[in-house]
């Protein structure tokens, strides 16, 4: 906070009083943002002889040499400010210009054309200007600012407050400050306090105002009440002013404190209710933020809710078994080992060996793998096929050496998954099939994020075009299914084992953004599917476009004749009612 010590007329025209005042208040230094303000004027330029205070003005007069000496003495410790009342004030300004920090116009002087025009001839670019706007409405203030901006001062301030000998608390003008701050955003505000110096308000009010609202505080000072003839109403003695500044430093220092202090952190840690489990949980399970916890104060070490949420968002799961009532620590969690498993075989009946058919320059299974390798937050990609001799050839179509080739049970796909899960210790599986060359990394991320956020056991996207969706499932749940189905003969349709058992597993159906919802068919079962895919690849290749779901949909949206190529091809598990009845019956868990 910048402070201006206002001398005004407390000296009564006694230069020795003024020297003593400067000496007494020398401890308040400009290096700590203190300035002092004087009021040089000439009695016959500020008023006419018939004015009631003319004789007082005459008694208050100091000549130019006296002012030079006064300013020099004060300049050693403080910035110098001058109140401008008349032409004589401007002469004092010019004579001491290199020592003057700034000048102030009381509201009664703002319309003085002689002073304004004379200022045009004074170098003001290093001077600060305070404009007191007592009695002025907002429109007047705006015009005044515009007028004085033409004089090119270094900075212009607006001052609130007037001398009421003393000014009552209700009239101090505090309510104006927020209005001025809002109307004139880049203008700093000076609060000139003139409350009765014998009341507590003389120190409390400017501190309250300065704490939030103003940028500079102006306070009247004096030596003592008995020796001060004028302007003692709102003036503080040295002892009062010293106490005022001590209070100011004490309370304003609070504004510089850290947003959160150490003791606050200790209080929070000691008293905060932290999550404790409301059920037993197994190692490998995801955490359901909404449903797995109750909140208690406890002396046990444990993560708070925000810390758990952060780790869950980073795909952490339980690393060890936990009991009901226990807290969760960072050591209880581990980063989930997430794999994309692509189920693929060559025994297709409708489109022979479709996994090896070319889409552009790649086989369909390689295109599938190429796009799966773009998935985020996954650790491995597995091409999972059967142990038959026919399917063994797929090891030559893994596209990238990082892809794991796995052969397992020909018919029990769940067992095939569990075998690779046990071998590689996967925790969470992204399930896709090899007949979907246009799988989307964007949809995968969206569904995978939701899977962890909800602490789900199975998730898939709602509204996706056939062939662009993914399913997310937890390894523990696949093993749970296996307990009830030693031979999961229908696990080619793995989805049913989850969706048909909603009372057993926590299912999470993720509503996808509209931009990813379409009725297109983007899975490979028929020649028409292959024809469409090659049209897409021809367009992408010709225009040097990389595949994204957005680029694909943009092309198909603009070319409906292409999207209609395979539109009427049936999806068996949508239309075959006998198959649907069989799956509903054979995949139901019976406890």
From TrEMBL:
CDD domains: GT2_SpsF
Protein's organism: Fusobacterium nucleatum subsp. nucleatum
Any Gene Ontology CC annotation: cytosol
InterPro entries in alphabetical order: Aldolase_TIM, Cytidylyl_trans, Nucleotide-diphossugar_trans, PseI/NeuA/B-like_N
GO annotation terms (biological process): carbohydrate biosynthetic process
The PseI/NeuA/B-like domain, residue ranges: 50-252
Protein name: PseI/NeuA/B-like domain-containing protein
